[in-house]
Amino acid sequence: MSTNVSAEQRIALPPPRLERGVLGWLHANLFSSKFNSGLTVIGGALVILVLWFGLKWIFFDADWEVITVLGGKLAIGPYNTDAACPGNDCVWRPQAGLLLVTILMGMGWGMAGGGLAKRLALATAIIAAAFAMLPYSLDKMGWDVRLMLAANLPAVGLGWLIPKYTPLRTTRWMAVTGVVVFVAVILLLRGIEGVPGLKPVSVIYWGGMMLNLLLAVGGIAVSLPIGIALALGRRSNLPVVKLLCIVFIEVFRGMPLITLLFMSQVLVPLAFPENFPLNSLMRAAIVITLFSSAYMAENVRGGLQSLHPGQAEGARALGLASWQATLFISLPQAIRNVIPAIVGQFIALFKDTSLVYIIGMLDIVEFGRAFIQGNPEYLPDAKELFVFLALVFWIFCYTMSYVSRRIEHNMGVGRR
Amino acid sequence: MVTTNDDAGAPDDIIICRDVNKWFGEFHVLTGVTTSVKRGEKVVVLGPSGSGKSTFIRVINRLEEHQTGDIIVDGVPMTNDVRNIDAIRREVGMVFQQFNLFPHLTVRQNITLGPMKVRKWPRNQADEIADELLERVGIPEQSEKYPAELSGGQQQRVAIARALAMQPKIMLFDEPTSALDPEMIKEVLDVMRELATSGMTMIVVTHEVGFAREVADRMIMFDGGRIIEEAPPVDFFISPQQERTKLFLSQILA
User: What is the pTM of this model?
Assistant: First the structure.
């Protein structure tokens, strides 16, 4: 019968030649139609042009000397200058802070046992240690500075060992240790009156990447919980709580960060003229954190609204109290759903830390700009400096983006 | 003589509803619902959509709030007192049409969450009961998977196990098979049959007539927010008293 197919005829035929191999890939992805072929040619030409002039500039035309002249000052700003630290013997303090952070990341690696935490910890230690190997002509660091940078490698190992041999191996203890490390770093940088070797360094001299990172880490760590609280408050049934949260969110979202920073320096001292306990760095940190938490609240609220009402019903039907349903059911899912928005806010916050220049703080960008302004012989090199700064920011922001993608992947976002 | 206001209930009634009324805005969704359910009784609730049958079982564990009338579950009156509501919810398990499993938790975590957080059991005790229940609903090998990795029928069986893990005295089923493919309906109904033979008190909203005939002690017919007919399945299916019931049965049995 004609409808019967013999066993031989049922053997699969190979796909047509144009669907396989390099040619097939080219055809499917670059030259599938006349229009797409045209786009491919134009796009290819653009890429070649950009690469040609870009690489030529980077390797032949650009003068990178300004970076080496600034050197470690990009990391710590004016922290170790005569005005900040008479005797210029304070550079070990930010370095010790870095070592503490490296130990903490090593602990994260030891606790997680590998994966993302391992890659981050090793990358931090290796990059920090690599700076110790810079040739003397590039960065005029002393041996003590180089040794403390190289110490980041043993530090990450030490951190890795801690969860193996001490009880500091749970998420809770990691969080506690993280807070302790943050406070310790602040104390190291701030100094303690009367302790030899820890003479106080005023916060107005804290600068460089150190300042950006301190503001960003503090802001990220505090703005997420505040944002969650505001988001829950905005959905609350209690009218007063709800109103307060809405007012807070809309006020902080409705003003530019620069305005808020400026007001924090000008208006707050006017309102509290005598002995106001908060220094300018603290006020900037609080403003950045509150500003960011208003955005965070709306991200989290979006996540909460994306949940099916059946989730809360399922939790209630099991007899969970409403705070338990929120903590164990709604929030984990809500936050998971909006990780991209939350990390976007983290990245925005990190980049916004540069705005503290408006209140006279010397973050990495402002420090570089001020250096060029004060040394006009480097004026032609401004573009090299800003390209370099852009690269530094990109590396940190891309790392955050990468971490968020890995976390999303590990949580199975979009799949379950 | 001891006076009692239990005019709608006898001592072995585990659920008592007296003149329960509920409105959604202007819409009167439950109108003077009075009935009771005995310990170990299996009740199947039928009715057209919008007749109030789902709302009826949702007021029993306060997923919906009724406005007037009394509901007493296992001797605890349903009031606005959170302690009463929590006490009732601990004793009443519920299975939903859309399963409502928690997608960010594994099957095992879905089942152990209630016992650990509400009953405050230690993890190993909760794990033990989870294994036992997964065995009972026929999917012991799926405990470490996430709900999205299971078929609809398996998810609904996990949902039943999750409700049973709280060791409830009453199980409510809100159209448990309506979202399932035909070949998965049987595996869920089999689990429910087994549960019925174990003596559990069950209220089931379903259109599965075969299941109702086989398992139910009593049928309740809802229409327009009222109970219009209550009868054992034999009488209910063979000689319904109300014209509305006859019409409805002729439509779902067609």
Answer: 0.85
